[in-house]
Structures are given as structure tokens and as C-alpha cells.
């Protein structure tokens, strides 16, 4: 079965602390009628710091969609290759051994996708398949894992590279002054992540089952309004409560595999905010420490969209607490409202030489 190997993560050099964010909100929105609520919500996110690809003064200027698109292309080409090489090294593979690249990003747009540039630049074969995913938002990290699993199930000798490139700061909109928008300004961060799914061999999570679930009639709860100024993020106040209808879907996939979702050994889930994780503890009946990897990502990097699941998984590798046979759940949540879920077992099968 396919094995999800240790991800590689890189965050940019410009740091914005929660104190910086609160001070900016006080200064820029001092006359906002709901400023106290906004400040309280930002404080409760648990995000201690975030990383940005540009200094905050450049982010706040918003030079326009054309300029931001140029920055997205320039920065992705500058930052993605090193992360890809590290992910390949961790999986003990060369570029020529990759059969599919799944590239996910909801914070910029290129056509052809960055996958074409990566193939031409980093030594991948011209026959390498490409699967760009642009419209699943934060759920795309889970979707990328699942589509890689599907591919390796269909082609058991194949290897898949997953790349998540999220520059959320390029979506900042100074004219969006709703509470949800101002909260988002204190929540999202920038990061690049990559991981390899090996068809055979490798150490990591042996993927065994995956599933998707969409909560009916919630497509406008998380969305972009695409305008001449770029992507305007829209967040409905009902989003934090979505774990109540999604928890049964998490339980269902586990039951289909004859597992109990409340009695697994590890949980790697998207941390959109602390309420998501708190509710999952309640509805799955697991202790808070079950989501320690996701909480650490949220605290140290903020919500890095599709990269959260990969970063949380990398933290589990670093903790080195997993042993062969332990069972776990991976899940990404995003627009739709969509859940992309996977079950897997930890394995340390030696890589064949």
C-alpha cells in the first residue's frame, strides 16, 4: 500500500507576532464599531506568530492583482524547489522516479501550473503527470493526499509528489472591514510544504482508505469573491460550528474500516482555528493532546491553508512517538463545506535498495 513519507516545510523570513497584529488592528481600525470583538477574536485564535513572504508594510499597500500575481509567481519559483528537494530526499527518491505531481494552492493562479515549471526545472520526466488543484482551499491538503493514494492504488509501482504553496498574505484586502475579514487578517500565514507518497516502501503513514464529505448547502460559508482587486475571502460566522455535522463523517469512514474514530493513536487534522480542534475533542471524545500537532502548527505558523495537514504530520515525525501498527486519521476541511479524510497505519518498512 502507498506510504505518505515525512513532509518538508518552509516558512518565509518575515514574522508577524500576535502583538503586532493586535497593534495594527488598533491603529488601522480605531473607529471600527466592533473593534473590541475583533481584538478578542484574534487573541483567542491562539496564533502566536505568522510568517510572510513580504514585510508587512508591503502587504498592506496592496499594489493590485497584476502585481500580486507577479509576486506569487516569483516567490513560488524561488521557494518551492528547495522544499521539493527536501521532500524527495526524505522519501529517498529522485525526481525521475516521480510519476505524478499534485500541486495545491488557493492563494495565487498560474497557467500553466507551477507543475510544468517544476518538471522543466528540477529534473522530472516529461511524462510526469500533473494535477493542479486550485479551488478546495484549506481542504486541498487532504485532497492531495487522497488523490495521491488513489493514483498509487491504480498504479501500485508509482510515486506521487504533493506540493502545497500558500501565500495567504497576497489575499489581504484593505477595504474588507467585516468582522470575519478582520479576524482572517489575524489568522492566516504563508508557507510551502511538500511530501511524497510512495507506492512501495518508505516510512510513514500507510494509507488505507479515503473519503470526502460535503455538508449540504454550505457552499457560501467559505468562499472567494473574485474581483478586479483579487481574491476577497468571505467567512461565515457559522463556520466554527461545522465540526458537529462533520464529526459523524469522520466516525463513518472509521467504522467502514472497522475502526473507532475516538480510539485512534494519532490525529492529523486541519487547524482552521481553536474552536475546530476543541469541538473535535468533544464530538470524537478524545483528549485535547490528540490534536497537539495541529495546535502547534496553528500557534507557530497560523492557518497556512492546505499546508496545515502536512506541517502537522511533519511534527508527528519529529516527535518520533509513533510505532508500527498505530492507527490514525488525517483530515482537511475547507470550502464546500468539504472534508477530505484518510485513514492510515504507521509503518517503518525499510526502503528497498
From TrEMBL:
The keyword Oxidoreductase belongs to this UniProt entry's keyword annotation: no
Signal peptide limits: none
E.C. number(s) listed in UniProt: 2.3.1.-
Domain (Chalcone/stilbene synthase C-terminal): residue spans on this chain: 211-341
Keyword tags: Acyltransferase, Transferase
GO biological process, one term: polyketide biosynthetic process
Active site: 138 (acyl-thioester intermediate)
Enzyme's top EC category: transferase
Molecular function terms, GO-annotated: acyltransferase activity, transferring groups other than amino-acyl groups
Family stated for the protein in its record: Belongs to the thiolase-like superfamily. Chalcone/stilbene synthases family.
Listed name of the protein: Alpha-pyrone synthesis polyketide synthase-like Pks11
Natural source organism: Streptomyces platensis
Taxonomic classification: Bacteria, Bacillati, Actinomycetota, Actinomycetes, Kitasatosporales
